[in-house]
Every structure is written in C-alpha cells, then in structure tokens.
Design goal:
alpha/beta, binds pyridoxal-5'-phosphate, Aspartate Aminotransferase, domain 2, 4-stranded mixed sheet, 7-stranded mixed sheet, globular, 44% helix, Aspartate Aminotransferase, domain 1, single chain
Length: 400
C-alpha cells in the first residue's frame, strides 16, 4: 500500500512530462555506431544515414580501434575490479595519461570513467568557500553539477558575453582562487568559446581558465587539439577536461589535464576518482589507438572540415539559417517546435537520422534540427542530406 502510493506519485510525474510533450523515448540501434545505422522502431526496422552521433572522426567502428580493444582484452582482461589507488592502475592507464598530457601540452593528466565524473570531481576538490567559480550560462550539465558540489561562490555570465564575464571577475576580486569555467564548444549551438578573450581577462584578474573541450578534442584546431588550438591559446589554458566518448573512439572515459599540482591533488582527494572503478583496459587501449589514428589518418580531420563547410554552404544557399560556424555541429534553425518535430520525423522517414530540439532544451522559439557531420560521411552523403532537407523543408514551408 505504502509502495503503491509512491508508484502512483511517480506515475503522475511521468504523466505530467508526457502531457508537456517532453517524454523522451530511445531509438534502438542494432548495428555499430557508424556512417549509417539500423534501428528498430515500434513499427518497423529501418536503416538511416546517421547525422546525430558525436562520432566526429568516424572512429567508433574503425577496424584498428576494434583490434586494439580485442588485443587488450587478451593481454589485460576485461576490467580492473578495483579503484586506481588500490590495485586498479595498469600500464595502459599510465600510457593514456601520458598521451593526453603530451597532446594538450600540459604536465599531467588524471583519468575518470567519464567526463561527467571528471567535472563532478574537479571543483569540489580545488575550491572552498573562500573561492569563486565564474561559469558560462550554457555550460554542460556536468560542470553545473560539479560547481554545485563545491562550496565556492558562484557567478554566471550570458554565453560568450565578455563584458559580463569581466563584471563577474570584478565582483569576485576578493576571493582566494578564481576559476573561469567554460565549454570549449557549446553543443546545442556549435559555438566555439572565445578563449583568447577569456585568457586575457583571466590574466588581468588573476583567474584560472578551465575548459571542458569534450566536443572540441579531435574535432577542431589544425591538428585536432581542440578549441584552444583553434584559438591559438594552447599553453594559456590552465585546466582541460574532456571525454573519450565522442571523437576519440566513442567508448567512454574522461580526464582532467593541467599542472602537476592540480592533478596530484585530484588523485588524493577527488571522489569520483577515489571511489569508482578504473577504466576498463580494452577501452583505454582503443582510446590510445584513437590518438594514433588522429595523427596517422590526418585526412579525417581535413575531410571533416570539408564536409562541414559543404553542408553549411549548400544549406545556406537553399535558404536555411544555420547556427554555429566552423564546428561540425550545424544546427538548422527552424524556430517553431512543431516544425522541427515534423521535419525531423519526415527526414527519418526518408532515411536521414538527425534530432530536433525545442524548448526547454533550447530557448523558446529557437527550435532546431541539430545536424552533426562526421569524417565517416562522404561528399555524396552530404549532398544527399541537403537534398532531403531541401525537399522536406519546402514541403513544410520552412524554405521557399
Ligand atoms: C559530452 C560532454 C560531457 C560528458 O562526457 P561523458 O564522458 O560522456 O560523461 C561533459 N562535458 C561536455 C562539455 C560534453 O559535451
């Protein structure tokens, strides 16, 4: 009786989510993450070209990535069954930490099971009540939660508003440590953070710069080093966070990288590191391989740039308005939520998988279909996708 009243309460909550049109369902994929995927819907099985994965370099199902995972499974087994500091540190973990440090040109790196974990472990460890965090309003949920766990003073500025950031820095002037926290790339808009300006302000006010570059690593910058390389400030960013679950193979895992002292303190005190199992060796090994492939198959970065530019140019020529700029996240701005919902359904029907977003995920009246390009796409795939958008956009009156 007691239990059933709980269940009834939760059912009401779920019904309210449904009534608001916000209930999320999950499409079931039966093939590896790749250029195209097969899905089972409620009614039928279908295959679609995939324009909504974070598989930016097309490495998720790369034969060398799979081989590296198989080999590590044989040499190191499935999992460590231990946290890192008891008996969960393998030579592979050390190698990946070194690789990330070299890649980002910092002293040291600490691995977590996800970037979400990395962010929830970072702020609490480094910042107390005498400190301040200054955070971009559009930062990822894991940064927001990480900041919530710390006792630091909190300041928030409208995304990309450097004057507002400066006001926050002035307001936090008396604090012991000040950290400016930002996504390198904002995932709903594809906007790249203004890191050069942020680094200038940080220097002026004696703040540290923390960049979560989950969508930037392996994606932008001449050699894939991310938003800092793209803006010419590699070496001026104090702390990086990132994920291996996107461009770098798409498995899982995350990290914090920066100065020795920061990383050493995290190893001693950071709770998601101390009290959660070590990353599985097959994923560590395949992530190492992803870093190798980023260099040895450098055509992937160039091709990604090419298909992104082509999609943007052709869509704009058809009269669509696109958010973002140089990043493969290319939101097709539609404004109206119903239009975004109807068009994304029609596109999937035509075999193009891209997801619509509307309020409250994005602001009211700014509904969109978020397209993400990948090095797995061919130029012909992009042209085909643009044709689908054009035909369906005309049918629904989104373009003339
Ligand atoms: C995707 C993402 C994360 C979460 O990464 P996981 O490794 O999947 O937990 C964290 N921060 C940002 C900015 C992201 O885009």
């Amino acid at each position: 009786m007691y239990v059933s009243s709980f269940a009834a309460e939760m059912r009401r909550e779920i019904d309210a989510i449904k009534a608001d049109g916000l209930y999320k369902t999950e499409r079931v994929i039966t093939t590896p993450q790749d250029r195209s995927v097969s899905t089972v819907g409620p009614d039928r099985q279908s295959s679609a070209l995939n324009f909504c994965a974070n598989n930016y370099l097309g490495l998720a199902n790369h034969p060398d990535i799979r081989a590296a995972a198989h080999a590590a499974l044989d040499s190191h087994g499935l999992g460590m069954a231990s946290v890192r500091f008891i008996c969960g540190t393998s030579d592979l973990h050390i190698a990946l930490e070194k690789t990330v440090s070299q890649f980002l040109e910092v002293d040291d790196t600490i691995l977590y099971n996800s970037c979400f974990d990395a962010n929830t472990g970072f702020f609490e460890t480094l910042l107390g009540s005498e400190d301040a965090v200054i955070s971009d309003q559009l930062n990822h949920a894991s940064i927001i939660d990480g900041i919530r766990l710390s006792k630091a003073q909190r300041h928030r500025y409208p995304s990309g508003d450097m004057d507002a950031l400066e006001s926050c820095l002035k307001a936090a002037d008396d604090c012991r440590r000040k950290v400016i926290a930002t996504d390198g790339v904002f995932s709903m808009d594809g906007e790249i953070a203004k890191l050069a300006d942020i680094c200038d302000l940080a220097e002026k006010y004696g703040a540290l710069v923390f960049v979560d570059d989950s969508h930037g690593l392996g994606v932008i910058g001449a050699t894939g080093r991310g938003s800092a390389e793209h803006q010419g400030v590699l070496g001026r960013v104090d702390i990086f966070a990132g994920t291996f679950g996107k461009a770098l193979g798409g498995g899982c895992g995350g990290f914090i990288a920066g100065r020795h002292e920061v990383v050493s303190l995290l190893r001693q005190r950071s709770r998601p590191y101390l009290f959660s199992n070590a990353m599985p060796p097959p994923i560590v090994a395949s992530t190492l391989k992803a870093f190798e492939l980023l260099v040895s198959e450098d055509w992937r970065l160039r091709h990604l740039k090419e298909v992104t530019a082509r999609f943007r140019t052709e869509m704009t020529a058809h009269g669509f308005s696109l958010g973002g700029n140089e990043h493969p996240i290319s939101p097709v701005m539609l404004g109206d939520a119903r239009l975004a919902a109807q068009m994304s359904a029609a596109l999937l029907e035509a075999g193009l998988y891209a997801v619509g977003f509307w309020y409250p995920v994005v602001p009211q009246g700014m509904a969109r279909i978020r397209v993400q390009l990948s090095a797995a796409h061919t130029v012909a795939d992009v042209d085909w996708a643009v044709d689908q958008f054009a035909a369906i956009g005309r049918r629904f009156g989104a373009i003339k």
